[in-house]
Each structure stands twice: as structure tokens, then as C-alpha cells.
Amino acid sequence: MNPTTTPTTTTKLTTTTKRTSLNRSTLTATLTATMATAVAAGLLLAQAGSAQAGTLTSVERYRATLAPLQSVGLPDMKCPAGTYLHNANYSPGRLVPPGVQVVENGGVGVSMSGATVAAVQPEGLPLGVQVKDTTAAPASATNWSLSSRELVIILVCTTNPYNAVYYDPYHEWS
User: Fold this and answer.
1) Is the pTM of this model over 0.85?
2) Nearest to 87 by CA among 154, 162, 152
3) Calpha distance 29→39 (Å, rounded)
4) Mean pLDDT of each 10-residue bin along the chain, 174 residues long
5) Cis before residue 97, ω within 30 degrees of 0?
6) Following CA atoms 86, 88, 90, 93 in sequence, which dihedral angle do they give, to the nearest 10 degrees?
7) How many Cα atoms sit within 13 Å of 110 on the Cβ side?
8) In this structure, how many other beta carbons lie within 10 angstroms of the beta carbon of residue 48?
């Protein structure tokens, strides 16, 4: 056995062992810090989400059976006190504001011009922003079918003003 190669091999093993140990401890510290950060961020998001969740309430505001080819004007429909129209499209393809769900079995067209701002606004909204809680006139429904059809209009309302239909004068494009 060559005595000069043994120390070189031992030295390389020692260096490799030290590097592996250093890499493992660095990796462990990095993973621990990453996991701690992720857990802390998750806790913060969970707390913020629970404070902002609010509750959704579906309220039937109109029900009628329309005769063939009958058109009717629709009344203004309002969410219960302390709730606002939920800012989600519950009637895709229809001309109704967000938070309005139209239920019918085919052939009835419904059109609403929009929504109006709530008379009492919640505190803490950005300057100028106002939430909406009522459908606006003019609004109508027409049964285009040759048989009678039932029409139901449901408002989906939220207690969270940050999830509500809103008016923002600083970002209106019209």
C-alpha cells in the first residue's frame, strides 16, 4: 500500500464529509425557515379570510307564472337590511346585475338595467366606493314560449361589503 495515497484519500473523505455535513445543516436550516414562513403566512391568511368571509343569503323576491307571449315589468328588489348584492354572476348570458339569479324552465327573457347603491353604507370602504343592494328599473320579463312558464328571481346577498356589487367613481369607464 502506498503511504502517500492513504492520507490523500482520508483527507478527501474528511473534506467530503465536512461538506456533506455543512450542506445537510444548510439544507435543514433553509427548509425549517421556509416551513416556518409558510406556516406563519398560512395562519395570517386564515385569520384574514375568516374576518372577511361574510355569509351569503338567497332571498326569493319575485315569482310569477307568465302566459304565452306575456311581458311584465319587474319591481325593484332589495336585499335584507345589512346585506348587499353578492358580486358574482348567477345568471350567465342574461342582462341582470351580479347577485341576481333567474330561475325558469326555458323561453323567458329577463332584462334589468342594473343595481342601485344602498341607502346606508358600511364603514371602512375606500373613499367614494359605494355598495349596491337593490335592482334598478327599468326591468322586464317576457315569456317567448307558446306555453305558460314560471319565473323565479332570487337575490344572492352577502354581509361582507368587500364581496358586494359596488360603485367606484374613480374606476368607472362610462
Assistant:
1) no
2) 162
3) 15
4) 50 50 58 48 39 84 97 96 96 94 95 94 90 94 97 97 91 59
5) no
6) 140
7) 28
8) 10
Residue whose grid cell is 373613499: 127
Contact 131, 164 (CB under 8 A): yes
Print the SS3 string covering the chain: CCCCHHHHHHHHHHHHHHHHHHHHHHHHHHHHHHHHHHHHHHHHHHHHHHHHCCCEEEEEEEEEEECCCCEEECCCCECCCCCEEECCCCCCCCECCCCEEEEECCCEEEEEEEEEECCCCCCCCCCCCEEEEEEEEEEEEEECCCCCEEEEEEEEEECCHHHECEECCCCCCC
Q: In this structure, what C-alpha cell is assigned to residue 120?
A: 346606508
